[in-house]
Specification:
The protein has 431 residues and is α/β, with parallel strands linked by helices. It contains 13 helices and 15 strands. The chain has helices at 5-14, 50-53, 62-74, 85-98, 111-126, 143-146, 182-197, 225-236, 290-293, 308-323, 326-346, 375-387, 413-428, and strands spanning 29-33, 36-39, 44-47, 103-108, 130-134, 163-167, 206-209, 239-243, 270-273, 284-289, 351-356, 361-365, 390-391, 393-395, 402-405. The strands form 3 sheets. It has a 7-stranded mixed beta sheet with strand order 4-10-9-8-7-5-6, sandwiched between helices. Strands 1-2-3-13 form a 4-stranded mixed beta sheet. α4 (85-98) crosses α10 and α11 packs parallel to α13 (413-428). The longest helix has 21 residues, at 326-346. The chain is globular, with a radius of gyration of 21 Å.
């Protein structure tokens, strides 16, 4: 067993102050298996956060580790300047699964870089730097993506190369439309979009939206809202970018992609992905209609995007996910988990709302009897859950505090029951 205190001291000495760590006494994770991880002190945890929704199938999945090892034994790196069989094979599979006609795929190393690329494509294609984004959103940490992030806790500068207009609609249970039924909510959000477009100068390049907001606290609009938006966008020639970094690959259970809950007006022009496809390996990317993807009139490459090793991991991970119907498992076990969480919340005055789809659930905490966010309670529950052997996440917008729950998609019924019980005990501990 290893005391993490000296490592924490070294972390603070050489890494940025703004690099967030969970827990008053941060932990070092040393290994994992299935849905469990162990820390340097030998403690075992049920992992309900998966390295921020990134360990999508399971820790130490044999099929993925074998693929990585075998590819590393052949060649680790080549760049996109050479033909790359694993990259082409994974691109073929993702293009076919995307639902976007005549799709092209460009691989990056992260979701931030994927969204950055999508913004480059949209602004070049439309010859405009104007972007529509959703309030409470998060799209990455680069200079361009913080400029379209509608969550002040994750947007450290107001400087941006883009002109961004923020639209209502992504948060169902708060804001000026929260009291409306779903149809009226959608109509009001569409009217707001029309009004915002009236403020823009000339052609807007794109709307970028997370079907379920991740960092914002797993909030989502009524099904069909982005499809209704798409009707407006089409009239103006504006592109739709679906940020699927957290919602892709079947995590929401009902759909393989989050955009499919809003599909009445067709697929997006682009979707971005990352996190879960690599099961921990650094993969991100953009899928776009060929006309949009091919609009750039200069050369480009990616040194590390499409690495043979990460592509081998992605192929093996995607095959496992499809062969074992993990989307179906997310729907079935996720539905059970949400039922348990709602039962727990009904007995807790600290929980204002339980929301989610599949294995993507959020518990919004407020000061009992009010709508005021309670970040201290969220931090206390996070600590209590860890002490009980459960790792979860947290998030929320400027006026919310949310516990984020997103286990690997292979979660079993027994593990869902166990995790819900630990979380219930953690909530009771703050009462």
């Amino acid at each position: 067993m290893t005391d993490p205190t000296p490592l924490h001291s070294r972390h603070r000495t050489v890494l940025p102050d703004w690099l967030a760590l969970y827990y008053d006494r941060p932990i070092e994770l040393t290994h994992g298996e299935g849905r469990h991880v162990w820390d340097a002190e030998g403690n075992r945890y049920l992992d309900f956060f998966g390295g921020i929704l990134t360990t999508m199938t399971a820790h130490a999945l044999p099929e993925v580790t074998k693929a990585v090892s075998e590819q590393a034994g052949r060649i680790i790196h080549s760049s996109t300047l050479y033909l790359n069989r694993p990259m082409i094979e994974l691109a073929e599979r993702i293009a076919a699964l995307s639902g976007i006609p005549d799709a092209r795929v460009f691989f990056t190393t992260s979701g931030t870089e994927a969204n950055d690329t999508a913004l480059l494509l949209a602004t070049a294609y439309r010859r405009s730097n104007q972007i529509l984004a959703m309030r409470n959103s998060y799209h990455g940490r680069s200079f361009s993506t913080v400029g379209i992030t509608g969550n002040r806790g994750w947007s450290p500068t107001s400087l941006s190369p883009l002109q961004t207009y923020y639209v209502h609609g992504a948060v169902r249970s708060r804001g000026p439309f929260a009291h409306l039924d779903d149809a009226a909510f959608t109509a009001a959000a569409v009217a707001d979009l029309e009004d915002v477009l009236g403020q823009a100068r000339g052609g807007v390049a794109a709307l970028i939206a997370e079907p379920v907001q991740g960092v914002g606290g797993f909030t989502s609009p009524p099904d069909g809202l982005y499809g209704a938006f798409r009707e407006v966008l089409n009239r103006h020639g504006i592109l739709w970018i679906s940020d699927e970094v957290q919602t892709g690959w079947g995590r929401t259970g009902d759909n393989f992609w989050g955009w499919q809950a809003h599909a009445q007006s067709g697929p997006p022009d682009m979707l971005t992905f990352a996190k879960g496809i690599g099961n921990g390996m650094s993969i991100g990317g953009v899928v776009a209609r060929a006309e949009v993807m091919n609009c750039l009139d200069s050369n480009s490459i990616s040194t590390f995007g499409g690495s043979p090793v990460t592509m081998a991991a992605g192929l093996a991970n995607l095959a496992y996910l499809l062969d074992h119907d993990l989307q179906g498992n997310a729907r079935r076990v996720g539905g059970l988990l949400l039922e348990r969480l709602r039962a727990i919340a009904a007995a807790s005055p600290a929980v204002r709302d339980v929301r989610g789809r599949g294995l993507m659930a959020g518990l919004e905490l407020t000061e009992p009897g009010t709508d005021r966010a309670d970040p201290q309670a969220a931090a206390a529950v996070l600590e209590a859950a860890r002490a009980g052997g459960l790792l979860i996440g947290k998030g929320g917008g400027h006026d919310t505090s949310v516990l984020r729950i997103a286990p690997p998609l292979s979660l079993t019924v027994a593990e869902a029951e166990e995790g819900a019980e630990i979380l219930g005990q953690a909530l009771r501990s703050i009462e």
